[in-house]
Inverse folding.
């Protein structure tokens, strides 16, 4: 009927399942790539169907970041593994102040995984990438036997270009600098936990999964002297700040009362015995900037929809022991330590 | 969170701190043991010690369920999974507690043992229903608070005819442990430890009531104040203890009246009595063999008792050499008195049980308070130089 079509029948995207042939390099794999990946990610470089994507780069400093995603469950309130895989890598690139340009995506699929779910995930990735203005230009697909994977794992790699004049790195934090966060902490982790099979509880909290590069662009435009940026994913705010303190050889002093946490998140953490400062975020950032620029940076963040609830939460202090301490809402002092062990596995 | 925030208000805390400072007698020292790890955690997490006068200190007690479990019992739990092929269901706190030979439940799991972390006994029952061909053992630990849910699970298993479910019972009793501490030679004769009063358990007391403490408050002439787990509860209770000490009283007072009554939860007590009975003796890490300090499953429910159902070896677990957990659990030593503290023993690589659970005093010291110790040490070094 259609002589130009390379595949006589279309993939059954409603009831079909991934089988071993979809990763074998034959016609079935080509069909999966064409009818799922290329169809959704559609762009010229991908359509060329080469083993690599070729593109020109401008002059300047490039950054590259990679991130594997194994979240369970695959679909959760406020997002799914697809959108997360796009946002996570864009954010890693953006934390250098860079403008993300392109993404690659590697899929490890488990035999038996429903094609409908795969398509839903790929469509969500394409929407997230499209909204962020970042194209997925190359990719890879492998299939593992049933029981050897958990539905789907996605690894994305991103590259970006750092605008002239920026020098953003964890090592740059200096005593006296201010510490800012872009909004409420702990939403992603609590949303995932609420949908875990053995933990299900009712909550209105949804994942904050979001691409932060436009927020970052506004921030560096307002305050090019930003010293450090981090997205507090696994290990939460506590891990991000300890990493910065360690790289820069400084301490930090936080004010618990200033840290934005939703009452629902606080309540869920209270119930589960977790500390919201250790719970993962997927659409928040921590920024360190010179004290005299902090108010300007705060204003720039609050003017962006993803930074509407931004706050100054503390300052960098001289401390060669590298302690992150916090004045508690109660008036005492405690350490905000690295996370020990794991709080909850497979959160992203 | 409104109802929680009310118990963490800074202005009230400052007021209580001022009150305590005004009422303590500067000529004497006050040492109060908080029995429960929950109190230890609140004291450190909210920095309560910072708000106390110099001559008032908290002695951390043994009330951390995973800390007091002897190594041999953890070895037995691993044995249940490895030698008997059972699915062992454990509360998360227990997973990283060191067993013999540098093992733990989480390491045994990585090596292939089927050990699963559960949030409640109901999860364990579900796993038993879903795996009818496998033996499923619930690793029951904890004080009087976690005992009623275990009793419910055993009754439920019987009602459902769930034949593959059993319980490895390690439930222990609070009052006998406090009494044992008060009778210890370190306290009575050698005078190495001073305890002027107790912050009594909060959740435990919601089950057993405040009456069980009356005997030893009288016998040992030590005041007890049942205290809630919120930081303001701890402060209010501390003030009540200071007043008792100043007035020479030794009564059981109840700060936690919003939850605890004198009689406790009679329904829960009846349930526990139906399923469990006293063990003649049970070993506690740190305290040794304590008579009538633990529960075992009654004969009528023998088929749900993992100790009767499986042949468990008499493991003689040994603590890591140099680990001071036993002395720390008795309140004789502070975490910082231990040579391993912060060197080889940290929450990432715990050598002793007190460093594992957030309720353990070593973990609380390390995670929330070590900046004070390190600053002091650093100051001492600088002074020396």
């Amino acid at each position: 009927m259609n002589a130009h079509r390379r595949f006589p029948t279309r993939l059954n995207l409603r009831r079909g399942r991934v089988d071993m042939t979809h990763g074998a390099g034959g016609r079935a794999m080509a069909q999966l790539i064409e009818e799922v990946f290329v169809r959704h990610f559609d762009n010229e470089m991908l359509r060329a169907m080469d083993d690599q994507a070729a593109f020109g780069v401008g002059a300047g400093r490039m950054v590259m970041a990679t991130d594997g995603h194994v979240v369970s469950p695959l679909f959760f309130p406020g997002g799914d593994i697809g959108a997360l895989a796009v946002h996570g890598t864009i954010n890693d690139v953006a934390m250098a102040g860079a403008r993300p340009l392109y993404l690659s995506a590697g899929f490890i699929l488990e035999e038996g995984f429903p094609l409908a779910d795969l398509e839903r995930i790929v469509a969500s990735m394409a929407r997230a990438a499209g909204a962020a203005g970042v194209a997925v230009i190359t990719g890879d697909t492998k299939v593992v036997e049933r029981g050897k994977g958990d539905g789907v794992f996605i690894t994305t790699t991103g590259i970006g270009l750092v605008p002239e004049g920026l020098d953003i790195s964890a090592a740059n934090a200096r005593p006296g600098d201010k510490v800012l966060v872009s909004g409420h902490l702990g939403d992603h982790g609590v949303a995932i936990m609420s949908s875990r099979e053995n933990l299900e509880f009712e909550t209105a909290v949804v994942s904050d999964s979001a691409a932060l590069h436009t927020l970052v662009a506004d921030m560096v435009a307002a305050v090019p002297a930003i010293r450090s940026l981090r997205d507090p994913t696994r290990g939460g705010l506590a891990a991000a700040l300890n990493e910065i303190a360690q790289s820069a050889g400084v301490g930090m002093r936080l004010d618990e009362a200033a840290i934005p946490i939703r009452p629902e998140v606080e309540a869920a953490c209270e119930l589960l015995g977790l500390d919201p400062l250790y719970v993962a975020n997927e659409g928040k950032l921590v920024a360190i900037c010179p004290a005299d620029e902090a108010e300007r940076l705060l204003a720039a963040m609050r003017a962006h929809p993803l930074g509407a609830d931004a706050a100054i939460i503390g300052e960098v202090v001289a401390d060669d022991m590298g302690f992150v301490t916090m004045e508690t809402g109660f008036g005492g002092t405690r350490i905000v330590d690295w996370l020990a062990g794991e709080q909850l596995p497979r959160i992203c | 969170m409104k109802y929680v925030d009310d118990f963490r208000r800074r202005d009230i805390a400052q007021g209580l701190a001022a009150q305590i400072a005004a009422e303590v007698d500067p000529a004497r020292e006050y040492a109060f043991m908080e029995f429960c790890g929950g109190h230890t955690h609140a004291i450190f997490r909210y920095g309560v010690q910072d708000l106390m006068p110099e001559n008032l200190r908290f002695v951390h007690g043994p009330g951390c369920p995973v800390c007091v479990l002897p190594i041999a019992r953890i070895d037995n739990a691993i044995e249940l999974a490895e030698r008997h092929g059972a699915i062992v269901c454990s509360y998360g706190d227990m997973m990283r507690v060191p067993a013999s030979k540098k093992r733990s439940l989480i390491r045994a799991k990585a090596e292939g043992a089927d050990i699963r972390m559960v949030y409640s006994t109901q999860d364990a029952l579900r796993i038993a229903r879903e795996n009818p061909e496998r033996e499923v053992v619930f690793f029951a630990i904890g004080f009087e608070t976690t005992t009623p849910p275990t009793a419910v699970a055993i009754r439920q298993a019987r009602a459902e005819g769930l034949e593959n479910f059993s319980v490895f019972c390690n439930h222990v009793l609070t009052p006998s442990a406090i009494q044992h501490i008060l009778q210890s030679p370190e306290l009575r004769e050698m005078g190495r430890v001073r305890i002027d009063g107790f912050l009594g358990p909060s959740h435990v007391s919601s089950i057993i009531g405040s009456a069980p403490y009356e005997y030893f408050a009288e016998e040992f002439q030590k005041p007890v104040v049942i205290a809630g787990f919120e930081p303001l509860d701890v402060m209010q209770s501390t003030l009540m203890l200071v007043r008792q000490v100043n007035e020479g009283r030794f009564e059981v007072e109840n700060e936690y009246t919003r939850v605890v009554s004198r009689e406790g939860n009679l329904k829960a007590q009846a349930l526990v009595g139906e399923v469990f009975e006293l063990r003649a003796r049970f070993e506690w890490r740190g305290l040794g063999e304590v008579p009538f300090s633990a529960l075992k499953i009654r004969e009528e429910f023998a088929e749900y008792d993992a100790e009767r159902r499986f042949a468990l070896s008499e493991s003689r677990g040994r603590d890591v050499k140099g680990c001071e957990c036993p002395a720390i659990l008795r309140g004789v030593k502070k975490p910082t008195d231990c040579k391993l503290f912060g060197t080889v023993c940290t929450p990432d690589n715990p050598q002793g049980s007190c460093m594992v659970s957030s309720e353990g005093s070593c973990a609380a010291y390390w995670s929330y308070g070590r900046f004070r110790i390190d600053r002091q040490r650093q100051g001492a070094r600088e002074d020396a130089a």
Observations:
- Chain A has a mean pLDDT of 92.
- Chain A has two domains: 20-162, 170-335.
- The interface with chain B takes residues 198-199, 257, 263, 266-267, 270, 273, 321, 323, 325, 327-335, 337-338, 340-341 of chain A (CB under 8 Å).
- The CA atoms of residues 73 and 198 of chain A lie 11 Å apart.
